[in-house]
Amino acid sequence: MATAALSHRILPLRSITPPASASEAKRQFQPSPPLVLPIPKRLSYGAQKCNLHIAQSLSSSSSSSSTPRIPSNPSTKLFVSGLSFRTTEESLRNAFKSFGELVQVNLVMDKIAKRPRGFAFITYATEGESKRAIEGMHGKFLDGRVIFVEIAKSRSELRQGSMENPT
């Protein structure tokens, strides 16, 4: 049986001397300046793109558009998590259609693995239908897995929540 030889390095302890004066103590224990890193082009481009998108949506909201829009009421859009990798959009539609008129079913896919990532967004026509879907499907089995259904949160709400509770 071969044993690995471990080498230990013992480092000498530095002698710590108390500061002679209060000004020396302040200088000795001053925090280092904050580290400032440049924003990568990829991120700054995304911020510019986001600002452009916001500006376009503000200008288009003042003018009437002929394209049909998905209802903007956030309580009609649901977040479904805990989905099986075998779940399809069709099986989601079949499971949720009994609670009301489905406007949109978006099963989020992994582009590399070409399979569902385990969550989806479902939009109903009315708030009442979405509440019935939450009551009827939260904690139920779909394709062999327990699923969780809740009202979808906007990205800004998710960011605010993570800022309040940093881990």
UniProtKB/TrEMBL annotation:
Keywords: RNA-binding. SMART domains: RRM. InterPro entries: Nucleotide-bd_a/b_plait_sf, RBD_domain_sf, RRM_dom. It comes from the Eukaryota. Residues 76-154 form the RRM domain. One of its GO terms (molecular function) is RNA binding. This is RRM domain-containing protein.
